[in-house]
């Protein structure tokens, strides 16, 4: 038995029982569609593989897509709108970073210090998620997405092992030239 | 089975078992009427749709309405009084915000830094809730409110699905003119 | 079923199962007498009605009365002694506050910033509890106190509803003259 | 049923079910011997009665005794060594403190601000535990210690009440001459 | 019954039930291979015995080995890459430290203050783990490692006690010359 802790759309702290590890993402999707979130956004934002960006299921982190009145693609998370930005690959002597897509917003007065990142000048921003490198994980896709592999239903009917399987992850953030 | 974590009116940390997701708001109302709260007030305050303001059920967040000796409408939350303020719509080149109603109080010496907001001069305040934009959600209303839709009792008697349904939410806070 | 989280007299984090909401205060008294506490002291201290001060059951918050070698009445909470102070009513143009009794101590080097309050000069102090205004709640009294109403045992024998009842609370802290 | 939350020797957060309050210290000893800890060290360190110092069971807080290569008695807690210091009684006009034994170490760069205490000059230290005043509690002693009272086994065989009993505690820290 | 709290690779807070203390490391390995972590990295990093470094099972803390494009051995933990460094023994008048292996990375803007350590100049870094001194613990090794002792399967078939056994730990960090 598993138990997942959420913060609801009303800000309440609620734990939901989950039958097994293979049901976990399903429960996250189900409550994430209501705007419930689990855990805090990691400093610098969630990291996902770039190939997951086109059909990423934002419900997994309690967010949803939204098109603003100017027709821009945005993502809403806990009532705040994050703008989509494409970052080109960096290949300098000091830094090597593959291309990425980043969802971020301007910092607010009530954002704690450790989530703020500096941009040009005095401008500060907060990142929700960054998609960069790595290998695509179908389990992160919107269910039924044409890009995702055949669903579980098409697999042989033998009982799946409850034991979760290791999965590829996003490319680690690399810092070249650090002195240690 | 769900489990909701409260801080009681005596400051104790108490978890209450809840039979299913459809009973959650009922349990929040029941204990909220005692002044029990779940989770922390989000930085910048709770965000609700403006159309929920007239009959909002403050028990949902452990608060209650109160009229002060001068006849002003206020809301009490964890022993502190918040004053009701109407904010006009903003429609400038830098910012576009629909009309709102805000409940706030002056900051106290013991308020942590991340909940304080700056007003004119050195004055700082703390927001409990802001009602702005969005689409009304009947489930946030005081039970039996004439403005709310027909209650569940008038629906067909077939067992309701335990699975919660997605719901419209308050309008996201938009920042126009941010450089990313 | 309820579950209450304590910090024991040895600093351990322990959760205790409670049969129902009507047993909660009993469990708090039982473990509070051992010096176990639940939750953190609110910034600015617990707020209780003034009429509860004479026979307040300090075990409810894991504290106990203590008379120091100089014969002064004090309260011990988590190994630290708080001194009793009577505050006169304030009725000025800027502030209106009813009479109160406060239990406080000088700040220690290891007290976090958000619990410290400024007094005259550079002196800082920390408040455990303040009793001010409000309507007396018998359930906060030492069991068997002559001032408390007839105990539950003298009530008719029909099963009490498990649902907790709303209760009067301490007077909210009012800030007159705040500009919002 | 009780549940105690530990941080294991590998830093994992693990909760252990405990049959009743009378089994709690036994479970703390059992896991404490593995270096598991529950809760955080209180600011200024744990407070215990002075008479418990000679045979204190350090396993209760996940620590253990250790003699360093120079033959000094130390205590290891979460991989850090604390040195034993005897403090003489203070009896001045400003401060009255009974004799004590303190276990402390120099502050490290990664210690948070609220656990650091100032010594002479710029030197800062962190206290694990201070033994001062109070009345000895046999339940804190190493099981089988000759100084401890007769063990439970020698008591009459009637079932012990599950309800825990109030116990004497360490002398509170007194601040003389505070202006409130 | 035990319960271990994880943060999943998606940042969710999930608790997993564990049958008994003897199954705990197995569960940590199983979920750690997915990048799930339990608890926070201690300030200054995890401390392990030096002899555990060659075949340490990084899954125990939700990390994994990774060789970067330049052929360097690194460790990935929560999407960040840590570089391996060998530290020579220190034997000066002020400090005595045995040889060690350290895994660390440069500090990022969003790292909280208490995990940052100062290096030369203004450079700051964050340590994931340090292997120094102590006595090797086979239970920390990759299962099936040739350096590990014979596995449990080769032991007599009598039921193992559920009670966990004390185990040797890494050498404590010693500060010579501290004035207390």
Automatic annotation (TrEMBL), chains A, B, C, D, E:
<protein>
    <submittedName>
        <fullName>Single-stranded DNA-binding protein DdrB</fullName>
    </submittedName>
</protein>
<feature type="compositionally biased region" description="Pro residues">
    <location>
        <begin position="158"/>
        <end position="169"/>
    </location>
</feature>
<feature type="region of interest" description="Disordered">
    <location>
        <begin position="137"/>
        <end position="180"/>
    </location>
</feature>
<dbReference type="GO" id="GO:0003677">
    <property type="term" value="F:DNA binding"/>
</dbReference>
<dbReference type="InterPro" id="IPR024305">
    <property type="entry name" value="ssDNA-bd_DdrB-like"/>
</dbReference>
<dbReference type="Pfam" id="PF12747">
    <property type="entry name" value="DdrB"/>
</dbReference>
<feature type="compositionally biased region" description="Low complexity">
    <location>
        <begin position="145"/>
        <end position="157"/>
    </location>
</feature>
<keyword id="KW-0238">DNA-binding</keyword>
């Amino acid at each position: 038995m598993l138990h997942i802790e959420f913060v609801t759309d009303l800000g309440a702290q609620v734990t939901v029982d989950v039958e097994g590890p293979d049901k976990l993402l399903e429960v996250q999707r189900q409550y994430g569609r209501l705007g419930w979130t689990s855990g805090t956004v990691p400093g610098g934002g969630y990291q996902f593989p770039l190939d997951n960006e086109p059909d990423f299921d934002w419900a997994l982190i309690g967010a949803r897509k939204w098109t603003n009145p100017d027709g821009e693609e945005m993502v809403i998370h806990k009532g705040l709108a994050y703008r989509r930005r494409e970052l080109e690959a960096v290949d300098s002597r000091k830094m090597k970073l593959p291309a990425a897509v980043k969802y971020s917003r301007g910092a607010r007065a009530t954002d704690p210090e450790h989530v703020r990142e500096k941009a040009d000048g005095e401008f500060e921003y907060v990142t929700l998620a960054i998609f960069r490198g790595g290998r695509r994980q179908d389990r992160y896709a919107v269910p039924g997405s044409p890009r995702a592999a055949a669903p579980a239903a098409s697999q042989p009917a033998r009982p799946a092992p409850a034991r979760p399987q290791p999965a590829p992850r996003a490319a680690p953030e690399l810092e070249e030239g650090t002195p240690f």
